[in-house]
Amino acid sequence: MKALYIIPARGGSKGIPRKNIKPLGGKPLIAWTIEAALAAGATPENLILSTDDDEIADVGADCGLDIRYRRPATLGGDTVGSREVILDVMDWADARGMEYDAVVLLQPTSPFRTAADITECISRFVPGNTDMAVTVCEAAANPYYDIFEEGADGTLHISKGDGLITRRQDAPKAWQYNGAVYVIDPQAIRRYPLGAMPRRVPSPMPRERSVDLDTPRDWALAEAMIEDAKK
To answer: Which of 23, 48, 61, 128 is the most exposed place for a label (fewest CB within 10 A)?
Structure first.
C-alpha cells in the first residue's frame, strides 16, 4: 500500500504559543513526529509538512524533509479543520502525479506516538473495506458506568444502558480518539467529514503514549514524563 503522510503544523497556536517548534525534551515538537514517521517507512518524498509558517518550514527542512508544499494562507486560521488541510495537500499531490492508496495524518501534538503505533494503525486499514483506521485509547470515563446525562426534570440518568452495572470491568469497553494517527481512504475523505466516516476501525494505544498537547499543563506533563523516563 502506498501512503501519503501529512503533518499539519500551522504557525498560530493560542493554547501553547509556537508549540510546533517549541523544544520538548531537547528538540522541536515536530521533530518527534517527523522521526516517528520516517522510522515507520515514510520518505522525504511522501511525507508532507503542511505549514504556512517560514520558521516551521525551516525546522522541517532541518529534520530532513523536502519542503515543496506550502499551505495557503487561507488555511492558516484556527477555525480551519483537518479535512480542508488534507484535501489541499491531496490536490497538490494529485497535480504532481503522486500515487497513494491512503492518507496518513500525524498531528505533532502526539509526541509519544511511536513508529510501531503508526505501522499498526496502517495494518488495520484495508483499502476498499475501511474508510478510516484511527488510534484510540481506553476512555477515562464510560457511558455505561460513570457518564450521566441530565434529564428534563433535572435529575441524572446513565448515558447508556440500564444503570445496573456496578463494576467498570463489567461495562462494555469505551474508546476515545487520542489524535495520534489517522489512516484515511482518499475517496472517503472527499465524501465525508472525519467524524462522519461510516467504516472506522480502532487501533488501540496505551494511555501513557496518548498524551495530546493542547494546554501548558499538558506540556508540563509531557516534560515530566520525559524526565521520569531518563531516571
So the answer is: 128
Whether 112 and 224 have beta carbons less than 8 Å apart is answered as no
Q: What is the largest CA-CA distance in the chain?
A: 59
All three cell numbers of 45, joined, read 518524498
d(CA 114, CA 230): 17
pTM (predicted TM-score):
0.93
Q: State the residue range of the domain holding 125.
A: 3-138+175-230
Pull the grid cell for residue 7: 503533518
Rounded Cα gap, residues 100 and 111, in angstroms: 25
- Domains of the chain: total: 2
Verify that 160 and 225 share a domain, yes or no: no
Band (230; pLDDT cuts 50, 70, 90): confident
- Let me know whether 82 and 186 are in one domain: yes
Distance CA 100, CA 116 (A): 21
> What stretches of the chain adopt beta strand conformation (E)?
3-8, 23-24, 27-28, 47-50, 102-105, 132-138, 148-150, 156-158, 175-184, 200-204
Angle between helix axes 115-123 and 29-39 (nearest 10 degrees) is 50
What tens digit of pLDDT does each residue of 15-44 get?
Answer: 788 999 999 999 999 999 999 999 999 999
Nearest Cα to Cα of residue 29 among 184, 177, 226: 226
Alpha-helical (H) ranges within 135-195 are 186-191
Q: How confident is the model over 54-90, as pLDDT tens digits?
A: 999 999 999 999 899 999 888 877 767 899 999 999 9
In the block, cell 476498499 appears at 128
